[in-house]
Design goal:
Number of strands of chain A: 5
Helix content of chain B: 10-25%
Largest sheet of chain A: 5 strands, mixed
Low-confidence stretches of chain B: 1-8
Number of strands of chain B: 31
Radius of gyration of chain B: 27 Å
Distance between the termini of chain A: 61 Å
Shape of chain A: globular
Oligomer: heterodimer
Strand order of the largest sheet of chain B: 3-5-1-15-12-13-14
Radius of gyration of chain A: 17 Å
Order of helices and strands of chain A: EEHEEEHHHH
Shape of chain B: globular
Low-confidence stretches of chain A: 162-172
Strand content of chain B: 15-25%
Number of helices of chain B: 16
Helix content of chain A: 25-40%
Chain lengths: ~170, ~750
């Protein structure tokens, strides 16, 4: 039995026929659509390396069955920049060295894009850290990641709108 | 935006990563991202028992599953040219490659299912339903017969010391004795071990994550009985290694064997839960520290004994006592190691092997002694500052540890620390504690080689089979090459991560930049010398007669040292000589004479603040300040990231990582990333890394020490000491978790 679904992947409509209902969205992207930016670190939703946006919401692609997302719009790391113009989150990750080996980076960046869209953190580093804690980084690039997300947040939404919150890192 | 100051030359500039664009756009291809034509997928089945043998696999059920191509078991696995248990060099660790039905640890590979799709291979592996003949297991520290190993770590002496420990203890006015346990840890690089293997006759193309391309090539050539030059290993991007990818592991080789078996390219990716066994770990330790000191805190004796575990079938001994051989001056020093065997996968080098586990014990013990003597922790460390390396009495090639202590203390505000514990609270009533730890790691070098080419179009090419696993080789080797060739960095092409390039050594042991950087520097200087040779012997050149020593290279031009106005571009020199390029090779290795004369180490001081909930025992690190001196810093932007990463590993060692083994089954009970805790972003405090200036004329011509591992050392002990300072409770079972703090 085969399954036909339609996805919009990085802005392009894709008609996909799957011969197997067990295919996850992550394995569809990586093994069938040649979009290998999303990474498989644990395959059970514990590390976040596979984070993509489904209809603008950050999701662990390893826990999403492809057939259950018929009609969805998927954004992967390959589709984030507009031509040569990096997304502000990408640019900030480079500037603040928000990565080392780079393996978790596509997931971190998409998670950050989702986080900023969720609009719950403002410029509060504690809330950014909490909101980014579903994405593990074994190299320990968290300081740069937090700085990058804060900088990108400002670039995208303008100065902090949450009253009474400190913009800078807690300089205790 | 961070400062981006430039001084004209590349070395020392805080450049962003040259591989950064590929990594932030998803263009960087890691090993498992490759899909050669005709690719099949392989999935391992691993043992649920820790000792015994496999008596039955339902191969028929797996083979009957649609899409399954083959099931590889000891019955049909390709035979190897030599036994994977043959130890023909000290770093040939024994591997489980389906050559028999034996099981010697949980999660050992017992079969591989190859199928047209990943889904079919996964289902096929599940259908194997293995049955075992299992035996009683022993996995606890000290449960087996305890013996003295032949060597520890990478071939270091098991026991080493100086002076008379008994006399030193007898002369002491204050003594402490304490035993510290550290937990088993698993590297858990985010990128699983994998291979994409393609055979063409007896030639192999392999995408696999490795920290040492040439070592991998050599090991595989031996196992498959083919010349090393028949093996092409490609690994441009490595998703973390931390020691677990220093030597090629069984799962990676099983993928190659599966490709041979079916005559098609195969991809095998280890599942996360399968990484708790066959790809190495840091063994648990139990360390006993006996310290004796006079009333003023001067150490008369330092006795550091380590008990650890290795596997039943191989030898690797976590060298926790090594740092006590060069860190603190003491009247007498003894460092000894003992080990017992257990039914576990063989432990291996893991980021700061020995130094990480040893440091937390030594730094804790020193603070326990300081408490007895009513001394400030910084004071007791300065009192026992080693002016020369203890035991060997060699001078240090450089040692700016005093400056590290001072600059870190100043930045942290250490001077206002109350001597007694439980003296500080924050506005929310949380207990606040401050702790200090000394950081130390050897400045070693491996052997490597590089090739540098100057091309007529005014660009330079640097080639070496070095590896970037996140430390920044893609950037810093280009910086070194640019300065060596006298070119702006944007005119440097760098090729690394490919075994067809000259041997780049090992990205490990904090030796990568020192080794391959030295090779690149030497190669570049050789290429410039070859170019100068062309110019100074050419009457038409403004450099004619200058002599090699009288020429400098900068901005793509050679100039006379005595008259910089007389210069010529590289392109003009090559064109007139009728050449399209000049090239040279360079070596990177330590100078044996200097290494014999001097002790070579990087140092640092880490100051930690923790907050502890007095009712719940919850511990949070709230501030870390590390000051490190590690010779010449090629790129401060990336070096700071290395220190932060190491410091976070220190947080992890002190408070998080703890593999729990079931004593009955021998299985890791928390073998996944939800239950085996590593720090998440919210666990990581505000951090600062101070780069303390240090000039080292002896380690290598560039003055480079390594920075990849030192951050862990010092940090874990500083946190343990801060927890004591916050609470007055000394926990000697690491990691310090709230149950241990309240218990």
């Amino acid at each position: 039995m085969s399954f036909s679904i339609t996805l919009t992947v990085n802005g392009a409509a894709r008609s996909i026929v799957l011969e197997d209902a067990r295919v996850t969205l992550l394995d569809l992207l990586r093994e069938r659509l040649d979009l290998t930016g999303a990474k498989k670190g644990c395959d059970r939703g514990q590390c976040g390396a596979c984070t993509v946006l489904i209809d603008g919401v950050r999701v662990n692609a390893c826990l999403a069955l492809a057939v259950s997302h018929d009609g969805a719009s998927i954004t992967t790391i390959e589709g984030l920049a507009e031509g040569d113009a990096l997304h502000p989150v990408q640019a900030a990750f480079l500037e603040y060295d928000g990565f080392q080996c780079g393996f978790c980076t596509p997931g971190q960046i998409l998670s950050a894009v989702g986080l900023i869209q969720e609009g719950q953190t403002g410029g509060d580093p504690e809330r950014v850290r909490e909101g980014m804690s579903g994405n593990l980084c074994r190299c320990g690039a968290y300081a740069g990641i937090t700085q990058a997300v804060l900088a990108a947040h400002t670039a995208i939404t303008g100065p902090d709108v949450l009253p009474g919150r400190q913009l800078a890192e807690d300089a205790a | 935006m961070p400062e981006r100051q430039r001084h004209g030359a590349s070395i020392g500039q805080p450049l962003t990563r040259r591989d950064g664009h590929a990594k932030i756009t998803g263009a960087a291809r890691y090993s498992a991202d490759f899909r050669p034509e005709g690719l099949a997928h392989a999935v391992m089945a691993v043992s649920a028992v820790a000792r015994g043998r496999v008596t039955h696999l339902d191969v028929a059920a797996a083979e009957a599953h649609p899409g399954v191509i083959a099931v590889m078991t000891p019955e049909n696995a390709p035979k190897l040219a030599k036994s994977p248990d043959l130890k023909d060099n000290p770093f040939a660790f024994r591997l489980d490659l389906l050559q028999n039905d034996g099981v010697r640890y949980a999660n050992q590979p017992i079969a591989v299912v190859v199928a047209e799709t990943l889904e079919a291979a996964t289902e096929g592996a599940a259908l194997l339903a293995p049955r075992y003949e299992s035996e009683a297991v022993s996995v606890a520290l000290g449960a087996g017969e305890v013996f003295s190993p032949e060597t520890i770590g990478a071939g270091s002496a098991t026991d080493e010391g100086s002076g008379d420990i008994a006399a030193g203890m007898a002369a002491a006015e204050t003594r402490i004795e304490a035993t510290y346990d550290t937990a088993a840890q698993y590297h858990n690089a985010l990128e699983p071990h994998s291979s994409v293997a393609e055979w063409d006759g007896d030639r192999l193309t392999l995408h696999t994550p490795t920290q040492a391309l040439w070592i991998a090539k050599g090991r595989l050539a031996g196992l498959f009985g083919i010349p090393p030059e028949n093996i092409h290993v490609v690994c441009h991007y490595l998703g973390g290694g931390f020691g677990s990818k220093g030597f090629v592991t069984a799962p990676q080789i099983l993928g190659i064997m599966a490709a041979k078996l079916i005559g098609r390219p195969v991809k095998l990716v280890t599942r996360r839960e399968q990484m708790f066994g066959p790809v190495g770990h840091r063994a648990a330790t139990r360390q006993t520290l006996k310290l004796g000191a006079t009333r003023d805190g001067t150490l008369t004796a330092l006795d550091h004994h380590t008990l650890t575990l290795t596997s039943q079938h191989d030898d690797f001994v976590e060298p926790s006592g090594i740092l006590s051989r060069h860190l603190y001056a003491a009247g007498a020093i003894a460092t000894t190691h003992a080990v017992s065997r257990a039914d576990i996968g063989t432990p291996i080098f893991m980021r700061a092997p020995g130094e990480a586990s040893g440091s937390v014990a030594v730094e804790s013990a020193l603070d326990e002694l300081a408490l007895e003597l009513d001394l400030d922790p910084l004071e007791i460390r300065l009192r026992n500052y080693a002016e020369v390396e203890p035991i060997s009495h060699r001078p240090f090639s450089s040692k700016a540890l005093r400056e590290c202590y001072a600059q870190g203390a100043e930045r942290f505000g250490w001077a206002s620390r109350p001597r007694q514990p439980r003296q500080m609270r924050d506005a929310d009533g949380l207990l606040v504690g401050w702790g200090l730890g000394t950081a130390t790691y050897p400045a070693g070098m491996m052997q490597g080689e590089a090739r540098a080419t100057l091309r007529a179009d005014g660009t330079g090419l640097i080639e070496t089979a070095a590896q970037d696993m996140g430390q920044g080789a893609w950037t810093v080797l280009a910086q070194i090459g640019a300065d060596g060739l006298g070119l702006p960095i944007d005119r440097i092409e760098l090729r690394i991560g490919d075994s067809n390039l000259p041997n780049g050594g090992l990205a490990g042991g904090s030796t990568g930049t020192a080794t391959s950087g030295t090779a690149v520097d030497n190669a570049a200087k050789g290429a410039i010398a070859a170019l100068a040779e062309l110019a100074v012997n050419d009457r038409a050149s403004p450099l004619y007669g200058a002599g090699n020593a009288g020429v400098t290279a900068a901005d793509g031009r050679l100039a006379r040292r005595d008259d910089p106005a007389r210069s010529e571009s590289f392109g003009e020199i090559l064109a007139r000589a009728g050449r399209t390029s000049v090239e040279a090779k360079g070596q990177g290795q330590g100078d044996p004479a200097a290494q014999k004369t001097y002790a070579m180490h990087a140092h640092g001081a880490v100051y930690a603040e923790v907050k502890v909930d007095p009712d719940l025992g919850q511990i949070r690190v709230t501030r870390l300040v590390g000051a490190f001196a590690a010779g010449r810093i090629i790129n401060p932007h990336l070096v700071r990231s290395q220190y932060y990463g190491g410091m976070i590993w220190g947080v992890s060692l002190a408070l998080h990582e703890h593999a729990v083994l079931d004593p009955r089954s021998g299985r890791v009970m928390n073998g996944n990333l939800a239950e085996y805790h590593i720090p998440v972003n919210a666990d990581v405090p505000s951090m600062e890394a101070i780069l303390v200036e240090e000039h080292d004329p002896h380690v290598n011509p560039l003055g480079i020490k390594g920075v990849g591992e030192i951050g862990i050392t010092g940090t874990a002990g500083a946190i343990a000491n801060a927890v004591w300072h916050a609470t007055g409770v000394r926990v000697r079972d690491i990691p310090i978790t709230l149950d241990r703090l309240l218990g």
